[in-house]
């Protein structure tokens, strides 16, 4: 049973990685595509992922429910710039307040692709182009910088309303035009 969980977890994270890589390559983010989520293969994340693997959601959620926190997530978010949590810092204006910093566009794009790939992997045949938007809307993200939020929501809505090709074309023409 343990060996099967190892294989299934490895397969899941690799499928996710390859999907994000394909999307990143499609808009010229080659380095990000190659390096996306590589920390998931580190022992501190991989072993936890195997232990809590379920196949229908992130093992980090199961670890969090069991332990009260996710050690794998704490490791992961501090090493991967496509997670908005990486960009949390103390506000320069308000002493002691933690706020979301503005994310560079290329990481917002990677975050968008990460959400598509995660939705496709976990939802499988029930995935639709609305799934990443629905997941986003169901969450309670409080710390997104206004600029980051605007870009992400524009991309999620474009995907939901017009499909992947239109969202990727928009990223190339408008979001990453300066890159």
Structure description:
The chain is mostly helical. The chain is globular. It has a two-stranded antiparallel sheet with strand order 1-2. The protein has one domain (2-175). It starts with a helix and ends with a helix. The model has no long low-confidence stretch (mean pLDDT 95). 63% of the residues lie in helices and 3% in strands. The relative contact order is 0.12. The protein contains nine helices and two strands; from the N terminus they run H-H-H-H-H-E-E-H-H-H-H. InterPro entries: DUF5662.
Outline the fold blueprint.
Blueprint: H1 2-26, H2 30-35, H3 43-51, H4 59-67, H5 71-77, E1 88-90, E2 98-100, H6 105-123, H7 131-138, H8 146-162, H9 164-175
Antiparallel strand pairs: 1-2
Helix pairs in contact: 1-3, 1-6, 3-5, 6-8, 7-8, 8-9
What is this structure, in a nutshell?
The chain is mainly alpha-helical. 63% of the residues lie in helices and 3% in strands. The chain has helices spanning 2-26, 30-35, 43-51, 59-67, 71-77, 105-123, 131-138, 146-162, 164-175, and strands at residues 88-90, 98-100.
How would you classify the helix and strand content by structural class?
Answer: mainly alpha
Percent of residues in helices comes to 55-70%
pLDDT < 50 stretches: none
Number of strands: 2
Q: Kindly estimate the percentage of residues that lie in beta strands according to DSSP.
A: under 5%
**Which descriptor suits the 3D outline?**
globular
Name the average pLDDT.
95
- What is the N-to-C order of secondary-structure elements (H for helix, E for strand)? HHHHHEEHHHH
Helix segment tally:
9
Amino- and carboxy-terminal Cα gap: 47 Å
Quickly count the domains. Answer: 1
Q: How would you characterize the largest beta sheet? A: 2 strands, antiparallel
Give the strand line-up of the largest sheet.
1-2
Compute the gyration radius: what is it?
Answer: 16 Å
